[in-house]
Amino acid sequence: MGFRLPDKAHGDYALGMDHTNPNSFRFAPLRRAAYRLSVTQPSQLPADDGAEVAIAGRSNVGKSSTLNMLTERRALARVSRTPGRTQAINIFDLDPGQRLVDLPGYGYAKVPEALRRSWGPLLEQYLRRRGSLRGLILVMDIRHPYTAHDADLIAFAEGCNRPVHVLLNKADKLSRGAAIQEMARLRRIPELQGVDMQLFSAQSGLGIDELHERIARWFTPDSEKETPAEAGANSEFSKGGENS
């Protein structure tokens, strides 16, 4: 199966979730995220209007934990020790006309091949044709980043003219200097030059402000950035399972 192209802060990572911090920014609609439905067929997708942002990543990079941190909901996305639990496109409503989309994790060998093949047409159609899709958040584990699956997804997204913002998650597992050096190394890779990238930790809150600001710009591209109180908005890619 493949695609064919056309929780508290600690240490040095003390950003946390303190909304009394005058320098913090939160895109308020993310706090109002509510599960809507799970999609296994293109015909089940909601009407293609408004705006939505999708979250992708290979198995075991912390994608579900990232979604929970982003929305400040401990169990909005199930965090499982067993990769392969996210086996559909999960849709979450924010404010009217705004959606957050959790894509199936990929690259987990134990997910049955038939299931991986069934995801292919759905994900290809979603990424290629979805008019309301404003951008793609790609979660990587900074300790094992930019796998072949990640490279294929970035190439596919570029072929579909989809902007990608890379989260180098689990940066709290490295020293600050080592994390910065790893991001600098990745930015020197030709295929990643020009791709937005940041350090992140779904456990400590590192980079949460920057991520909220990126998503707010996608949802409200023609508006001035709102204050926290005002915020209202041809490669092959094999899919597998999800784990955080």
From TrEMBL:
An example of a Gene Ontology cellular component annotation for this protein is: cytosol
Domain EngB-type G span(s) in chain numbering: 49-221
GO terms for molecular function, please? GTP binding; metal ion binding
Q: Spell out the Gene3D superfamilies in the cross-references.
A: P-loop containing nucleotide triphosphate hydrolases
Alphabetized UniProt keyword annotations: Cell cycle, Cell division, GTP-binding, Magnesium, Metal-binding, Nucleotide-binding, Septation
Q: State the PROSITE patterns in the record.
A: G_ENGB
- Cofactor dependence: Mg(2+)
Q: Which InterPro entries match?
A: G_ENGB_dom, GTP-bd, GTP-bd_ribosome_bio_YsxC, P-loop_NTPase
**Comp. bias intervals (Polar residues):** 235-244
Which residue ranges are recorded for the region named Disordered? 221-244
Instruction: Give the family from UniProt.
Output: Belongs to the TRAFAC class TrmE-Era-EngA-EngB-Septin-like GTPase superfamily. EngB GTPase family.
Q: Which NCBIfam families match?
A: GTPase_YsxC
Q: What PANTHER family does the entry give? A: ENGB-TYPE G DOMAIN-CONTAINING PROTEIN, MSS1/TRME-RELATED GTP-BINDING PROTEIN
What protein name is recorded for this chain? Probable GTP-binding protein EngB
Source organism: Acidithiobacillus ferridurans
User: Which gene codes for it?
Assistant: engB
